[in-house]
Amino acid sequence: MNAYVGTPTSRVDGRAKVTGAAQYAGEFQAAGLLHGFVVTATIARGRIVRLDASEALRVKGVVDVLTHANRPPLADDDDAWKDEVAPEKGSPFRPLYDDVIRFNGQPVALVVAENWETAKFAATLVRIDYEQDGFATDLDAKRGHAIELDKPHKPRGDAETALNGAAVRHEADYVIPTEHHNPMELYATTTVWEGGNRLTVYDKTQGVQNVHKYLCSVFGKKPEDIRVVSPYVGGAFGSGLRPQHQVVLATLAALALERSVRVVLTRHQMYGLGYRPMTIEHVALGASADGKLDAVVHEAIAVTSRHEDFARNDTGWAEQLYRSPNSLLSHKLVHLDVSTPCDMRAPGAASGVCALECAMDELAVALKLDPIELRLKSYSERDQGEDLPYTSKQLRECYARGAESFGWNRRNPAPGSMRDGKELVGWGMATGVWEALQMPVAVRIVLTANGHAEVSCAASDIGTGTYTIVAQVAADALGLPIETIDVKLADSTFPQAPVEGGSWMAASSAHAVLAAAEDIRQELARLAKAMPGSPVGSVDIPDLVLVDGMIANGNDKSRAVSIADVMRHSRLERVEKQKLNQFAEDKSHARNTHSAVFAEVKIDEELGVIRVTRIVSAVAAGRILNTKTGRSQIMGGVVWGIGMALHEETVMDHRFGRIMNADIAEYHIPVNADVHDIEIIFVDEPDHRINRLGVKGLGEIGIVGVPAAIANAVYHATGKRIRRFPITVDKLLD
Ligand code: MOS
Q: Which of 249, 365, 651, 714 has a 20 to 30 Å separation from 136 between CA atoms?
């Protein structure tokens, strides 16, 4: 029954990707395809008073220059612009809607030409005069203007009194800078004009149906007028959850010109959207003399745009993760003249848990306790926030397995005490946590008489391995070899799926496949039983299983009939079933994934150069559907965690409200030379409650805790505590 699930099955789309057969949004061709190049604002706030495109229009090959003044109609109410993951509160940004400038880098015109080079050149000739207004982009300077969220967190006990009375206390601010998405694939859309007012939109997105609904409402189109397709995505990690600017621009141009149009943002222009908001995370912890937590206070102050309230769960983890009778959490926003932040791998947790886990390390130092021991003293068997038991929680095992593999017991706790030649050696650890979410997803399975099955669903595969796990689950459920399963994803006309994000798609899509496969099984079972002289005629339908291309008695596999025979006999070319899987609502348990991350750094004492030489990440995430793609998910998160700890920072010149390092030459991300040994351990975590397969999902959990483990290792190596990320040489030598 389980030939594929749980095994390290190679990506079913691997060959298509390495041979270049896999087509990405910016690669689709169409007859007479035009190319758009975006012109962006160079001020942070104000108004366009004059936009002169005449010179650009005189360039041979330029077809049009679209602006707020000559664009086709766009919806004029906020609801039409709200996609399925838009913030509840606020007014979504509308590209080329009006003359108002809300952030530096905002798209203000689209030059459309016969080829990309011409469009790019002509874009330099568009003259724009602005009327500038006063603006603010500096969170540090505007910290005092922070506004508490509408729905404040309910306090537990009296954290302030407990903190004041605590035997040992630690309190500090940790600062996570703004960080920008840099997926390999640029943000891209090719909108194909199909004639008769119909459009096919090839878009880089995490949710084709989200984009479909958005485009229909923004452009006032009927659902059948637009089809959104996104077969392959070159990394997105949250940057493709909401519809991006270029999908509006390409579609707007296609409608205006009745031609096919491609718009690809440059790496530089991608910094006009898609970032993890800068946060100032204030954490205060109070403990008894023997190291039991008594008070947890976590206040996050985050940047958002003036037009939308983007907020994620930075602080809730502090209340959930460790047992503490008293807790006080708050999340505040500062509205600045910037684009709206967006989700970025483990949004909220990556930042908030980083601060919490650095603070826990500092508390351990103050208490002279081993950091793991401190965490075990306040280990929470129940979700403290909701006061609920977990469906499963093997975090204890993560600490044990991770520590053992890392060699943690050989650690000398004194900072600066461990060396390797010229280099200081530091060992640090941290806890990671994420949610195990699951969403309604529908899947269609078409089984043909020749023993092939097509499995289709609107879900995206953003590089995580959705194609592969869907094929694995389908192959097992239908009793067919994986080679006979053809998975089709990410077409808005396919059965419904939400955006792929939050680490929910593995569990969600897998159970939708099971649900559709069960309907197929039942249909085939009925037909098999009805065959004259059927060897399974007397077997009850629930006892019949699909295995090795047969319908067999689950209790005696020798009593079987081949699926091909059943279909031939029933004169069926195909059996088709579509099913929406909804998980039963169960508020009786908390659902989370956990990890224990161990990091080794080696630091050149004179130069301050930090290398992360080893990471061990022990992850408890229920049943792992595919240990190969799962491992890749965690590895990617760990590498990103190295970036958060040591490299990534969007630097803004607040005199202009402009990002100064909007490219991957100056915005540093880890490169191969920064990545050394990474060991990933999947801790067994049987979970019979969460869902039928016991799957919790992977992805986000890979990054959570990693930056803190590294920061704690840097402290252990040097005795220096850097609380403003990233930890760079200048801060270390300061
Ligand atoms: Mo998720 S924020 O889409 O990695």
A: 249
